[in-house]
Design goal:
With 299 residues, the protein is mainly α. It has 14 helices and no strands. It has one domain.
Length: 299
């Protein structure tokens, strides 16, 4: 039997892999279709799947969950699946994915602080040091990728930086709220209720504020685009997030979210092998530093 901490770390790394795959597909769909439509429509696919998984694997959570848990998890879903994802996409648009990801690596720090106050989770010196090393490597990796062709205005950079910071804060808050309900519900059921909250928020926003509810669905008439959305939805919000929530039962929230931040390393490997992209020495150095940091988390 593997130690609980090791199980949590392995699950977090697998979740990071699914998020890397998601970011590649969502970046493509954002350019080809629409980021807002992607955020909205994917939840209509994900909710029936995750609800069915929860009912089969963990029982009838619809009645098992208390009213307080429903409220907490619905709010968690709105913060994570709607606000965090929306601000993330807006940040990518305004300052580019690299800079946005650098700011969003603050997420593990926010999670560690919040988990200390809510759950009294205290990281060891080695765990805190390993998080800093891992994040340092990721920052080097992201900032030393090639510059975007389009020149981004200073005004947009400021706005994009604020969006990325808000995304990190919303994600951390969402994670903490989700963990409070894990003592009474399984991770899949927890994710299902969160996703329902995100869907309600996204649908209301599309219907009453953007007034593009129907247009979002017609945007995915192309079979290729819909197939990619289906793959990303099942692997990310359904499988990836369920694994992440499960890992919270085995390892501290701050440690888990730090491991999830290694997604850019998987993206770099993908670009190196499949796209044959030229990789700079600093990018390799950043990757090595991050791997060392991750290895230290297993000590």
């Amino acid at each position: 039997m593997l130690p609980p901490l090791l199980i949590g770390q392995i699950l977090a790394i697998i979740a990071a892999l699914t998020y890397a795959e998601n970011s590649i597909i969502y970046s493509y769909l954002g350019k080809e279709v629409s980021t807002r439509a992607t955020v909205h429509v994917r939840l209509w696919i994900a909710v029936p799947v995750i609800v069915l998984m929860a009912l089969i694997g963990e029982g009838n959570f619809l009645f098992q969950a208390s009213l307080s848990n429903w409220i907490i998890l619905l709010i968690s879903g709105v913060l994570g699946y709607f606000f965090c994802d929306s601000f993330s996409f807006w940040a990518f648009t305004n300052i580019g994915p690299r800079e946005a990801m650098v700011i969003m690596t603050l997420n593990p720090i926010f999670n560690s602080v919040l988990s200390y106050f809510f759950f009294r989770e205290i990281l060891t010196i080695i765990q805190m040091f390993s998080i800093l090393i891992t994040l340092s490597g990721i920052i080097i990796l992201i900032l030393n990728q090639e510059k975007e062709i389009d020149v981004i205005k200073k005004k947009n950079k400021t706005k994009g930086a604020i969006f990325a910071l808000l995304a990190a804060i919303f994600q951390a808050s969402s994670n903490i709220l989700a963990k409070t309900a894990l003592t009474d519900l399984g991770p899949i059921s927890t994710n299902a209720i969160r996703m329902i909250g995100g869907l309600i928020a996204a649908a209301i926003f599309a219907l009453f504020f953007r007034k593009e509810f129907k247009k979002d669905f017609t945007s995915f008439k192309d079979k290729k685009h819909f197939s990619l959305l289906l793959i990303a939805t099942i692997s990310g919000p359904v499988i990836g997030m369920s694994l992440l929530l499960t890992s919270f039962n085995y390892a501290p929230v701050g440690l888990v979210t730090a491991l999830v931040q290694i997604s850019p390393i998987f993206i770099l490997i993908y670009e190196l092998i499949f796209i044959k992209k030229h990789v700079k020495l600093l990018e390799i150095g950043g990757t090595i530093i991050s791997v060392i940091g991750v290895a230290m988390m297993f000590l």
